[in-house]
Amino acid sequence: MSARQPQHDERPYDALSVAELYDEVDDVLGRAFPRSRLLWVRGEIQHVSDRTGHCYLDLVDPDGHRSRQAPVLKVKCWRTTWQPLRASLEREGIRLEAGMVVVMRGSLDFYRPRAEVSFVLAEIDVTALLGGVAARRAALVRTLHAEGLLDRNRSLPVPAVPRRIGLVASPGSEGYRDFVGQLESSGWSFLVTVVGTTVQGRSSHLALTAALRRLRGIECDIAVVVRGGGSKADLAPFDQEAVARAIATMPVPVWTGIGHSGDESVADLVAHRAYITPTECGRELVARVARFWEAEVAGPADVVRRGAEGAIREVEQRSAGARHHLIGAARHQLRWHGDRVAGCAAALQALAPRRVDLEDASLRHRAGRLPPLARTHVDRGVERVGAMRRLVSAFDIDRQLERGYTLTLDARGVVVRSARSLAPGDAIETRFADGSVRSLVDAGPGEHDGDSAAPPGVGDDLSSEGGQRA
Question: Which of 71, 74, 93, 353 gives 20 to 30 Å between its CA and that of 339?
């Protein structure tokens, strides 16, 4: 089968151009869904974005089968409509997020450059959204209660003096300053460890959860989560399940000061204690420490002070009586010991001359014995010195040489004590009483037989001290 070749003046197939096709589509959609016709549409948010000032959403069927072929409705809301609509939602504590089922009103639009059919948002059923948010919150509370998490943190004991505080807050924010300001102005010493986090925004609940988990690894007496108020939408992260579970499972009591005066958030419900503002939370911590100080320190100290003052007065009275008694006894003892000292002095005065005479006689007797004893010791010392000199002179080397011994030294001047320490060709020096001679070793020990004559200049006999007999 071959393709037909049309003639130049013939128009094939009655074909439409792209623009003509879009004109027909636009005309059909315009008749079926005119812009004046506002439609109510229900769907689940798959994606939401409003970073440009306009709002763009992707809606899917909330009860439909999820697949790659599932229909998606592109929704757009222009800035002039979206800004007041978003403010209205935030006043009710609503923030559009993925997973929400919404009912909205608007018109159908056909965007020719992309051949895209979209929905222009004009109104959102806030009542339905509020009902959905309340239903989800109630379901979460029931789940936490069934798992025993609603009262778990509340059952933890609070230390009598909670000084180590783990603070989850946005550093520098109003809530942070209000809470820390109460502690700083109290006059008490608190150790505050701050785990910084964001407390509003789409992912703030994830940041809050991560901060609470980091706080688990920090040693503290109590954990505090604060925020300086905001709209209902700003406080929505504190209704998230992840934040509630993180607070409920903390190993230490958690106090909240989220800064709202309306309904309690889920975080408040699972916390150990919830306060309306960060200021109230900090004030209660200070009051708790002050109550402990008054009950356990200042009060007992005052009782001890009053008891001590009474005891001191009683002791002073007893000590005054004892002082008078001691003064009388001391005077009596002084008089008695004075009389005794006077008697002893008189006795000493009488005995002193006789004692002096006896000691003088003993001293003269000992002085007379000293000269003979000294001379005897000196004579004995002289005799011992002479004997030692004679003994030393008997071993004098010159005396040994005069007796006929010789002294043999090697080239280094070291005494030769064995023939084996010499080798042929070694120079040796032989000392006699009247001089010395130098010679060379002709042969080592054992190289000549017993009949061989000794070389000239070498003695016959070797002494044990290395000398030779001449």
Answer: 353
